């Protein structure tokens, strides 16, 4: 058992930087019949040339292409080229070693600390290089900066935030209609959520779901539930905190009641339902899925192609045992200016470009792609993103900014001494929950987590 666990931990550390961000936990290709335009126009009259690296996903590349083309049209002296696309953030390490780093790169907030710690990115709070940054960054949600910090003392701004990504629940309206089940509403309680799950897995009108919901197997959903159960990996002083009643209760819930109505996956089961067959189906794999706004276009494309309707609802409002308001994870991705970008004119235009992208105009210019929930507070209930339609019906954008739950802090790993240890702890945390899926007991999983931290030189004070 011990050797098997150590092997699993070693593998987790090796791939820890390949674990996807809060906004794009696993890259998916667009499924729609019409692929989005991912081409960036050439600008031969330019005098300043910027390179950009972003995710390999078609919708992500289309997002950058739209921004680049709009910006180039207004600023003909600048040329923007998509020089790199990648599925794993750890490609940045390879490019850095080969002197192939783009001037601007997409990065995930919850994977950011290691790279800022190692000197990959400019600190955008430096007004001598990035004038007006203090006023500019005041417009964003505070939560989108916390996950990038490499320690409690780190006050830098290491990227321009792109998304305000709260976990919400997408649901298949066609299945709800087939079964005569009322649509969930924003602010629904945890009790109502579990009642809905029970209804979806009970045959009605000749139809049922094998499981009610597909839960994404990723850290933010675990962090969300840990906050709701008053559980932590480590506390604010760096003390190991997994040995708690709350953690044990959550571990047992995942291993027990959770399994009765949920499957763990990456969204495929939810998207697989088809309403096109001439022979009516009597079952569906799942009628709901936990996810963020980043995959709105993905689910909308699948629904259009397979003839069903999709909508979204807020994450259920969990009420703790002591009657406190519940939490839901809120994260962000964004774009960093790399320290390989050193020329003054490039820095100036890279900063101008990113300020345009994450402006009200920039967000409106890409709203129809269904990829971004704006990180600007001023756009919480305004802008074209609120009008996104799927199959001709407006999707409930409020699900992604609903305030019936509080935002969960996603970076309490920063009690550790550097970004590298934060990434190791994340890998060990992921292995802890993988052990749950594998049937390991709570006591054994906690001990193995603590032993792994000690073996890696992470000091979790007892």
Q: Can you describe this structure in just a few lines?
A:
This protein has 462 residues and is of the alpha/beta class. It is 35% helix and 15% strand.
Provide structural commentary.
With 462 residues, this protein is an alpha/beta fold. The protein is built from 17 helices and 17 strands. The strands form 5 sheets. The chain has a 5-stranded mixed beta sheet with strand order 2-1-3-14-4, covered by helices on one side. The longest helix is centred in the last third of the chain and has 19 residues, at 419-437. The radius of gyration is 22 Å and the shape is globular.
What composes the largest sheet? Answer: 5 strands, mixed
The helical percent reads 25-40%
Radius of gyration: 22 Å
DSSP strand tally? 17
What is the structural class? alpha/beta
How much of the polypeptide forms β-strand, as a percent range? 5-15%
Q: Unreliable segments (pLDDT under 50, ≥5 consecutive)?
A: 1-33
Spatial strand arrangement across the major sheet? 2-1-3-14-4
On the 0-100 scale, what is the average pLDDT? 87
First-residue to last-residue Cα separation: 24 Å
Anisotropy-based shape: globular
Count the DSSP helices. Answer: 17
């Amino acid at each position: 058992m011990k050797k098997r666990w150590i092997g699993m931990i070693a593998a987790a550390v090796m791939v820890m930087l390949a674990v996807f961000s809060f906004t794009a936990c696993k890259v998916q290709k667009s499924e729609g019949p019409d692929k989005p335009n991912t081409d960036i126009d050439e600008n031969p009259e330019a005098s300043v040339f910027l390179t950009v690296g972003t995710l390999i996903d078609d919708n992500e590349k289309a997002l950058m292409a739209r921004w680049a083309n709009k910006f180039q049209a207004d600023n003909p002296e600048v040329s923007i080229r998509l020089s790199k696309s990648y599925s794993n953030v750890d490609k940045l390490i390879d490019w850095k070693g080969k002197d192939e780093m783009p001037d601007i790169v997409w990065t995930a907030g919850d994977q950011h600390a290691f790279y800022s710690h190692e000197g990959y990115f400019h600190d955008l709070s430096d007004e001598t290089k990035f004038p007006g940054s203090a006023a500019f960054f005041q417009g964003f949600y505070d939560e989108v900066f916390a996950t990038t910090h490499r320690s409690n003392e780190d006050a830098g701004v290491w990227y321009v935030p792109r998304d305000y990504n709260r976990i919400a629940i997408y649901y298949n309206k066609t299945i709800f209609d087939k079964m005569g089940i009322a649509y969930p509403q924003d602010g629904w309680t945890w009790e109502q959520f579990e009642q809905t799950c029970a209804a979806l897995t009970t045959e009605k009108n000749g139809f049922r779901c094998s499981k009610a919901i597909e839960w994404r197997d990723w850290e933010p959903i675990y962090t969300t539930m840990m906050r709701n159960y008053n559980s932590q990996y480590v506390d604010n002083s760096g003390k190991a905190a997994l040995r708690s009643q709350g953690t044990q209760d959550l571990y047992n819930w995942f291993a027990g009641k959770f399994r009765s109505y949920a499957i763990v996956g990456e969204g495929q089961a939810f998207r697989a339902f088809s309403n096109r067959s001439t022979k009516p189906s009597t079952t569906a794999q799942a009628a709901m899925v936990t996810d963020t706004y980043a995959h709105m276009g993905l689910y909308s494309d699948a629904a259009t192609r397979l003839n069903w309707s999709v909508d979204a609802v807020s994450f259920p409002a969990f009420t703790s045992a002591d009657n406190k308001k519940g939490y839901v994870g809120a994260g962000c991705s964004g774009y960093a200016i790399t320290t390989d970008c050193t020329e003054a004119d490039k820095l100036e235009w890279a900063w101008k470009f990113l300020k345009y992208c994450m402006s009200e105009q920039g967000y409106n210019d890409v709203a129809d792609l269904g990829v971004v929930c704006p990180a600007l507070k001023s756009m919480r209930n305004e802008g074209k993103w609120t009008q996104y339609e799927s199959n001709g019906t407006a999707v409930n954008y409020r699900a992604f900014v609903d305030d019936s739950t509080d935002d969960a802090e996603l970076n309490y790993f920063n009690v550790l001494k550097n970004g590298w240890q934060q990434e190791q702890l994340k890998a060990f945390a992921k292995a802890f929950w993988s052990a749950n899926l594998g049937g390991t007991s709570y006591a054994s999983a906690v001990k193995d987590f603590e032993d792994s931290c000690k073996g890696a030189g992470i000091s979790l004070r007892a």
